[in-house]
Specification:
Elements lengths: L1 E3 L14 H5 L14 H17 L11 E3 L8 H6 L8 E7 L8 E7 L3 E10 L15 H12 L10 E10 L9 E10 L2 H22 L2 E10 L6 H10 L8 E7 L6 H10 L3 E7 L17 H15 L2
Bound molecules: zinc ion.
Amino acid sequence: MRFDIDALPILEEADAVHLPAKEGFRSRNEGMMHACGHDGHATIGLGIAHFIAERKEELKGTYTLIFQPAEEGSRGANAVVKKGWLDGVDQFLSGHLGIRPNPVGTLYSGSTHILATTKIDASFTGKTAHAGMEPHVGKNALLAASSAVLNLHSIAPHGEGATRLNVGRFEAGSGRNIVPGDAFLQFETRGITTEQNHYMKEEAVRRLEGAALMYDVAIDYAIVGEGLAAETDAYFLEKIPKATASSHYITDVHDRMEVNGSEDVTYMMQHVQEQGGLACYMIFGTPLAAGHHHKRFDWDEGALAVAVSALAHILAHE
Ligand SMILES: [Zn+2]
């Protein structure tokens, strides 16, 4: 079982309209916020650890609980896989709170449309110069990056399935009378399959290089995170409704949710599936005060019992 535990660089809402601010459990770390529910995932992991410890005489098999850092930006899971923690795993369980608002008691046995993704940092380096006396001597990194941003967002969508691109951060220059000598972008690509994300990444890199060539500046880019596409095995879509039928916490079991987001858990799922094992990514229903990654994100703690109950019933089911 895998539980991601990280937070996001977001300043959490301090106004009392936000329940965690009103009730006094807003983030203690200014500028860092659990705006995706991973604090809940950590709690669910502790809950199921407690269950396993209590029932260890009855349960069969060996269980590994992975508390994974750095899911945001898709930087953590692949490192855990490379350490060997998923080697020899027969069945892999993971999941997420929310994604879309649902009543507490709702459970999705699996998910589909987890998008493959690549996260890229790009630096353009030109040459600063006096903007009045010798602008012709400068090499304008800001213009190169601007051109890159517009052209990145104009990559043709793939005809065979959904693709995404977002430039989320742009920094450049140092003052109004200086030809800007440096610029920095953070952006991401996504695709419904690993191949379609690869198409977006290749097109993006060509546009970075083309923009740099046009303005005669240097371009340096680094892939700082990646996630794959993945599907829940049909085995779990059949097993989970049966296994959880006797849970008092679970009122409504659905088949699969279309996620349309990315998750680096896909590295773990693919590793297990490639070894002949089975992998699952559930969704635990909760109402949401605001969307994921929003400063007013909040979920219903009632979903914790639903998630722990779901996992416990799956483990105990023959
Ligand atoms: Zn998340």
